[in-house]
Amino acid sequence: MSKPDPIQATDDAARKLARRLIAQMRHAVLGTLDPDSGAPLLTRIAVQTDRDGTPLALLSGLAAHTRALQADARAGLMIADGKAAKGDAMTHARLSILARALPADPDPARRDRWLARDPKARVYIDLPDFRFWRIEPVSGLLNAGFARAYRLEPADMLEPPAP
Amino acid sequence: MSKPDPIQATDDAARKLARRLIAQMRHAVLGTLDPDSGAPLLTRIAVQTDRDGTPLALLSGLAAHTRALQADARAGLMIADGKAAKGDAMTHARLSILARALPADPDPARRDRWLARDPKARVYIDLPDFRFWRIEPVSGLLNAGFARAYRLEPADMLEPPAP
Q: Are B126 and B114 in contact (CB under 8 A)?
């Protein structure tokens, strides 16, 4: 049986959609490797963009996903379209990223930027077990709806370097 | 620093919530192990319950997650509360399952049961590359909102055996 390749050639519309999905996200599903079983552990996390457009998570050290990332930096991220709350979720645009998660400094600019978009985080952002993690994309799979899928490189998802 | 255990003792209210989340799901985020990198690959899939309450997925053999499951049965599943589309998603109930995914026979009862809840699947359910997979729970992590988390065994999530 011949299998048609469901992946289309990446174009600027796909890049624009991927960047919009990343820019608007406030939460996402994180995938980590469960240290005990090696299975993919899925958790919902708070996530925004860092200054360069890289996904930035604010994670508690008490959570299972943080222990998993401390043992193995390999991560996945499922970003849904926050504006598409109605209708059949299988037709909504979404972006799946394979990534490496690395701890990030809680410098004041990063902290202030986070709080500007998530003021309620003020309650826990300074607790000693919370810290930032950069979820650095390695590759992406963009699903723009039925039969429209694209494989993306990091440069297709992140903001272009400032001129 | 002493770390409080954020996990509460599993009670019947937690079991009831987990079973409701599983019973109402029509889609979920699947985690598989990317065969190339070993990283957790997250994709949105169509999923319902099988007769015994086990999550049942209908997957295309053309999809990356199916190739991943054929290489390694370890899977994760993130089930959100379909009735909680509004408000802060971080406060919505959700269930994360660690599981083993196993191909399931497309017997007529299973096929009819699926189509009764997903009539639009009639367009592709009989295509040769589509098949059912049982996502058999190994353990679960139920988040019922901030600071209410429970670890679940399979018996806490599946329907009790018929008397």
A: no
